[in-house]
Amino acid sequence: MGQKLAEKVSEPQWLIEKRKAAKQAFEVELLPDRVSHLWKYTDPAIFNPQITTVESVSEIGMWRYSEPGVEVLHILDGIKKYEDLMREKFGSLIDNKNLKLSLLNESTWVSGYFVYIKKNKQSDDPVSLTMSMEKLKSFYPVRNFIYIEDGVDVKLVEQVCSQDEILSDVNIVTEIFLGNGAKLDFINLNMVGNKINYHLIQRANLSAQAQLENTFISLGGNVSKIDSETKLVGEHSVVMVSGIVLGNEKQRFDHHITVNHVASNTISGLDFRVALKDSANSAYTGNLKIAVNALGCDATQKNRNLLLSDNAKAESIPELEILTNDVKKCSHGVTMGHLDEEQIYYLMSRGFSDKEAEKVIIEGFIEPIILKIPEHTLISGQVKSRIEQKLNKG
Amino acid sequence: MTLDLNQDQEYKYGFHDTENYTFKSGRGLTKDVVLNISKMKKEPDWMTEFRLRSLDIFNQKPMPKWGDTKLLNEIDFENIFYYVKPTEKQGKTWEEVPKDIKNTFDRLGIPEAERKFLAGVSAQYESEVIYHSLREDLEKLGVLFFDMDTGLREYPEIVKKYFATIIPPEDNKFAALNSAVWSGGSFIYVPPNTQVEMPLQAYFRINTENMGQFERTLIIADEGSSVHYIEGCTAPTYSSDSLHSAVVELIALKNAKIRYTTIQNWSKNVFNLVTKRAVAHEGAVVEWLDGNMGSKLTMKYPSIYLIGERAHGEVVSVALASGSDQHQDAGAKIIHAAPNTTSVITSKSISRNGGRASYRGLLKVHKGATGVKSTVKCDALMLDANSRSDTYPTMEIYENDVKIEHEATVSKIEDEKLFYLMSRGLGEDQAKLMIVNGFMEPFVKELPMEYAVELNRLIELEMEGSVG
Prior knowledge:
The complex is a heterodimer of chains A (394) and B (468). With 394 residues, chain A is an alpha/beta fold. Chain A folds into two domains: 340 residues, no CATH class; 53 residues, no CATH class. In chain A, the strands form two sheets. Chain A has a nine-stranded mixed β-sheet with strand order 1-2-4-6-8-10-12-14-16. In chain A, helix 2 packs across helix 5, helix 3 crosses helix 4 and helix 6 crosses helix 7. The radius of gyration of chain A is 21 Å and the shape is globular. Chain B has 468 residues and is α/β, with parallel strands linked by helices. Chain B has two domains: 397 residues, no CATH class; 49 residues, no CATH class. The termini of chain B are close together. Classes of the chains: A alpha/beta (394), B alpha/beta (468). Strand 16 of chain A pairs antiparallel with strand 22 of chain B.
């Protein structure tokens, strides 16, 4: 399948070889076992679709940029235009952790973005990468490659969306490279319909003094799984991960966030907020690693869960693996609970109905993360109306 | 005071006596070995069948795929003695206890401890309890405190009613192993509304190279009663690996209270793979105090099933991982299965000299368990750059009317604290020791005084070599 598509668009020989090897490996590779916490709560078989119709994410959603220093291309065009760079870097961040599903992507991907932000960038406007799915019963393997040059400061919004009735599967692999002192404000926005099985592998690599704001806003999907790992390989690099999950009906979310402190004096923070209505359920599994030679690191994780109905379920495993004692600070915290009755009582005494009070409290809970979306844009409007719709339902 | 940084602390109780056994099963585990154990103990048929069924389960279960799998796979099940019986008869009084065994206990300080405060000594030397004294007042209260074999012989109906109901052999591979070859351990039954004021105590000890210890403890606190059980163990140092795999079951009936204290100080060649679990009925309280100082690899997660309304569970655990040949994988599990139940987990770990300390825990709230409150707190102190600390907490919450908090921190000895203490005239090693002692305080303060003193001495001994 991969082979055929590759020929059609005349891929370079090395890429064809790569796909071929991935396809062979995929066929013998077993689905991951459920022992480690990565797949403890969600069956990986869900993301190994039986659907054989491979589709590209819609071109309509793609915004082409022609401004100086900002190169946003179809991934294949990017591979052809920057072949030397891509031969070296493309796929280099993909590890063995989630092998079956990354091989599935590697052998079948047909669309995605190539983003190259250069030093001569002038505009401060956020760059939007939209991936829209429009066909029923299809499989969308998507591959993104994001490369930020040294010292560049940029904001990217990756939005995945579909109409409500679309029943399909999506498998996205995104690689992010940050050069020395580069700053990226990145948002992954899951706005797909509630029938889509959504699987994302995200790998980010930070050089010295690079800074990544990595935000996940997870609203859509039937079963949504995110496996994200940030490697702090350069000294003084910083990653701040934020996330919100707003689940309703029978939605299932599973976020696995790894932060790997490889270099000294690196900093990481995590603020992950989960609010669940109806029979929605969420698993948050985190892994915070500090390597033997990574001295003077500072790492914190915070996971908050708000269970809004009797049938909502939440699981949380925030792991720490610390291999050196020379840590500035390393801690994590988890809270789980329902709405604070005193807060509701207070709001009701000010004239809110109980439903309104509940809504106001949930909005307050997720607001710090929603604020990261660029204001007064098409996207922020869409996100707000989706949240409104989810809160008002039921 | 100057200390040699590379000085290796000789194991404190690393002496051992000449072996003198009347029966030693062959190495390895077969159906015959299991049948022999059961026959020798003249057990009822149901127990023999239970052992054989457990053996099948043990053979079918794969090794765990989680935890320190590298170390776990070093265990050679074929090279272990599964049963050793030291003497034919159980000593009735201290005088009747064989001399060489008594010597060992003398050196552990048991007689003094008994004189001072102990209600009963159940000293497990090898696989069977050989000495057991119950003070008269305990007997008057109707409290049963025996080794497990005697318990089974004399109170088969109580044993049959509760045995393996909390930890069935199907639970895990090592529980199955214990169920097949168990020997010794304690059996305690406290009648309704009876308060046992003094702690009950047992010492454990491994003495034969390559010999496994598979003791089995069952404690039942009937309605409204209370009991505190202390288990402490030390073992002589040997060259090849020993396996210790105990099963401990606690049952706290309505409004009963059980506190179970363990201080584990196995020598550094022992695999300590223990299953400990308690159920707390309505209004009952169960507390595990769990100190892990020794062994090569400890995997132990004392658990509490809160199955009655308003039951309370508490686990305080400390672990000291010292040296690159030691991994303490300890933690706690609490399962809330009834409304208005509460729990607290406090875990403290110290890793030094390349040691690895892991906290692995589970907090689960079942649907319908409304009004649950739980706090989980894990603190880790790392004393040098090549040590390792892991935290693997799991929370599964299936009820919304709950209040759950979890916090974990990993830190080193802060320079400011050290500076402050040194500015008050303390040497650096004294200052560090004081900080470490302060860190362990929440555990130590819960122990009976003798134990607290001994534990402080142990920490001091362990800390020499690392500070200075």
